Amino acid sequence: MRISILGTGNVGDTIGSKLVELGHDVMMGSRSANNEKALAFVAKQSGKASAGTFADAAAFGEIIFNCTKGEASLDALKLAGAALDGKILIDVANPLDFSRGMPPGLVPALSNFNSLGEEIQRTFPNVKVVKTLNTMWCGLMINPRMIGDGNHINYLCGNEAEAKEKVRALLKTFGWKDEQLLDLGDITNARGTEAVLPIWLRVWGATKTGVFNFGIVR
Q1: Is 129 helix (H, G, I), strand (E, B) or coil?
Q2: Whole-structure pTM over 0.70, yes or no?
Q3: Taking Cα atoms as reference points, which of 42, 49, 58 lies closest to residue 25?
Q4: How far is 137 from 114, CA to CA, in rounded Å?
């Protein structure tokens, strides 16, 4: 499958590398076609990946991961433009506000009664937005069995049931168990998953590690 990664940070690099390992054709997108981090990613994949602009990557991918910084995601996606139409966009980003230092809060306009996931869906109505993987460290995103034999939770939400099922199938190739993938419903539920970040950041600060996740005990 052709899959694009928008964003050149640790999250994009980690997910992109896993996708290459699984045999997918991967393109990393950024603001410029010669972005140093994107070219470094391509180099370490031994010719099994490519790089381009956000628009190039959006046109290339059948599925697209938004791994850009949440506060800049809308601007980045606007650069991708109409090439996103009809595609599944897996939104991994969180709208973190670093204006008052650490730990960050959430961007006021994208929290409480709104979310980044909703704003992306609203701005790009022809895109099938699925919010997932945004409540954990990137190492666990692609290797959930690193801890607790994978018995911890990952949420999905989005308006398109078929898109969510395709994303679920892809997540299972990362090692996620079907019973640990909880569909919360439509994209408005991104308000809840993005709101996990304030407590996640405080646990990270207290434990000095990102190798943890939350579970549901019934």
Answers
A1: strand
A2: yes
A3: 49
A4: 23
What 8-state DSSP symbol labels residue 214?
-
Burial of 131 (0-12, 13-18, 19+ CB in 10 A): buried
Asked whether the beta carbons of 92 and 66 are under 8 A apart, the reply is yes
CA gap 24, 20 in Å, rounded: 5
With beta carbons less than 8 A apart as the criterion, state whether 42 and 28 touch: yes
Return the structure tokens found at 108.
């006021």
What would the two tokens of residue 103 be? 């730990």
Alpha helices, DSSP H, located in 48-174: 54-60, 73-80, 116-123, 138-142, 161-173
Confidence of residue 46 (pLDDT cuts 50, 70, 90): confident
pLDDT in tens, 124-159: 999 999 999 999 999 999 999 999 999 999 999 999
pLDDT of residue 47: 82
Domains of the chain: 2-207 (3.40.50.720)
- For 18, other C-beta atoms within 10 Å of its C-beta total 18
What are 154-188's pLDDT values in tens digits? 999 999 999 999 999 999 999 999 999 999 999 99
Distances (CA, A) of 146 to 89, 101, 105, 138, 168: 26, 31, 28, 12, 19
What is the Cα–Cα distance from 161 to 169, expressed in whole angstroms? 12
